[in-house]
Amino acid sequence: MSISLVSLPQQYRHIERRKQSGLSLIELLVGLSIGLLTIAVAMGALMTSRSVTATVTDSSQLQQQSAYAFRVFAQQLRQTGSMRLNLAAQKTEDAVIDITDPVAFETKAEGFDPMIDILSGKDSPNENEFSLSVGYRNYTEQLHTATAANKRASLLRNCLGENGSATLIQSHFVLRNNELLCAGQGDAQPIVDNVANFQTRYLLQTTPHGDPKMQYVNAATVGSQWNNVFAIEVCLVLYGNEVIDMPAGSSYSDCPAADGSIAEIDMTTLDAPRTRRIHKTFRTVFQLRSQGLLQASN
């Protein structure tokens, strides 16, 4: 026998109606709108966080690149012009060295002219020239790592890790196609990318050594006075990879000119791939080791 809903007690009819109830269209739309707004806020926060993270990462990478570039420059420039010490005449290459032995700087070795081979530069090099070229005397010394057949070896290396010739180690630097290139014995190879500018200035000694005075000059002003260059300032401008939403007129300070003036460059108007990228300028001065020799040669 079937029982109709009408014949059920009042409390059971209420439960049945509650089971059959659901969301209205308006309630469903309100829920979807709240969900979409929550997703939009979360996505906005995620994009902002990613942008900040990318900018910080870009800045850190530029710091690392500059540190590496200046480490290469320091290794080569601080050696510029250095030469082997001549021990007392009675000493042979394999003799034990005594700290009290008289020494003298080697004035010249075959295939190495310190007045020609140690330093040169170009303000506007062509495709076959370099902005900066440095060199120093290559020599061997007695090492525990040398083979039994050859107890002497050289630890000196150029900017690419090459040992160079028997008498001279040279490194050549130039900026081409936003890459800082270095050449040793062969073709130039990139050592740092995303380079917007590479400039060098030279501290030229302009007065006698008794009352020395230095002046910042470019390569053209140095002319034939490379033997009076006391130190070199290296300036690099590096740029990042991430596009930044920066306000109009955002600028950075470029490398200084020979007269010391510094231009402000608008980052929002640069051509690709540099437009709206973070730019950082790095400068360091390296004193040349050859200064004692150069003073004696004047």
UniProtKB/TrEMBL annotation:
- Ranges that cross the membrane: 21-47
> PROSITE patterns under this entry?
PROKAR_NTER_METHYL (PS00409)
Q: What is this protein's name?
A: PilW family protein
User: Coiled-coil regions in this chain?
Assistant: none
InterPro entries per the record? N_methyl_site, PilW
Query: Pfam families given for it?
Result: N_methyl (PF07963), PilW (PF16074)
Query: Which keywords, in A-to-Z order, does the entry hold?
Result: Membrane, Transmembrane, Transmembrane helix
